Amino acid sequence: MKKVKKVLIIGGTGFIGYHFAKKCLSKKFEVISLSRNKPNKIRTLKKVEYIYCDIANKKKLNLKLNKHYDYIINLGGDVDHHGKNTFKSHFGGCKNLAEILKEKKIKRFVQLSSSVEYGNEKSPNIEKKFKKKTKYLKSIYAKAKLSSTLFLLNLYKKNKFPVVIFRLFLAYGPKQDYNRIIPFTVKNCLANKKFACSNGEQTRDFIYVDDLVEVLFKSLNKKYNIEGQIFNLGSGIPVKIKKIISFIKDKCKKGKPQFGLISLRKDEVKNFYANINKTKKIFKWKPRTKIENGLTKTIKYYENCFKNKF
Questions:
Q1: Topology of domain 6-170+209-233, per CATH?
Q2: Phi first, then psi: what are they for 278, rounded to 5°?
Q3: Cα 295 from chain centroid?
Q4: What is the CATH number of domain 171-205+236-266+289-309?
Q5: 3-state helix, strand, coil in the chain (%, to 5)
Q6: pTM of whole model > 0.85?
Q7: What is the pLDDT of residues 221-253, one digit of tens each?
Q8: Which helix (H) or strand (E) holds 117?
């Protein structure tokens, strides 16, 4: 009888965690989610085993990780990227996981990192061109993510810890929380409200959640000799924030964005997008969802939420 593959998703109750868990279930994996809090109703999956722990608490985490897991994907860490627990949650939590799991025979540890590790490097950002010291980075979140990357790469060199690192740009899609730019805009447009925006001239790289999950799932396959490597995860296509907001407004046929009321931060990078050539080549993959199609699907999902709620 074929052995069922077991995947542990750190942060499995979140937006990406939910979609990744669905993908794994569809491939007949046994799925365990570890998070601090229970999933909300819209992101609960019947066949997922939910366990709860703060990954920043190593003693309790060690007690929770008492089973064998084939694969671990780390999506964990505080959602608030500017809070006092940001570094402890993202770096401390990652370090705790790796130190506990390096003693177990896991097949792969997938770390979802962030494009903020590039700091103010000129786009398109490429994996081999990034600062290897955190002092050049402005935010606590960026420092935490880069510290995690450097720690994991060092663990791979010393102990052959089977880590793969993905630098995510901006993800979007159905069931994302309203504190992100796209669902925030959709919500306000559907409610036909005025809402403050920047001038929207900055460009960003958005990837639809289904395309993102496809790559993450491929990375579990041992046929890819990818351990100890970094991969960018984005669409590779820069798009202006103003274009995104205007598209949503036009699709919803209402909404009152107030462009220019929010000033850009002094340290904000105006143009920020990925070079995804390495990811495309290694995984024989490319994003399938054009931004217009992804936004249309996303808007449709939130429209249904509004209808059912009110």
A1: Rossmann fold (3.40.50)
A2: -65, -45
A3: 18
A4: 3.90.25.10
A5: 40, 20, 40
A6: yes
A7: 999 999 999 999 999 999 999 999 999 999 999
A8: none
